[in-house]
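Attaching the record inline, Q. Sequence:
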Amino acid sequence: MSHDLDPTDRIRRLKDVPCSQCGGAVAYDTVAEEFEREGMRVEISGIRALVCTQCGETYFEPGGAQAVVESADSLFALARRNRQHSGKLVAAVA
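Structure, as predicted:
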């Protein structure tokens, strides 16, 4: 029998771990991430993450960073496929 924490407990305990950069406290907040590729820019906003209250370092929940990258990849693919991109694409997580 495994004594590992279930995923929900692991996520709840993440906020109790100090920032690995400065040792400050982390708290949940919403953030925006911007990506640039081949002259195109994509911004995804409204992403829930843990953010250090002192230095601003961002920590995603397990699997969260990969999901953000996959979302950005999809937006870049859409922009290239439809040739409808000029400037910056913006997507919001609600």
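The longest helix spans residues 64-82. The helical segments are 7-14, 64-82.

More tomorrow.
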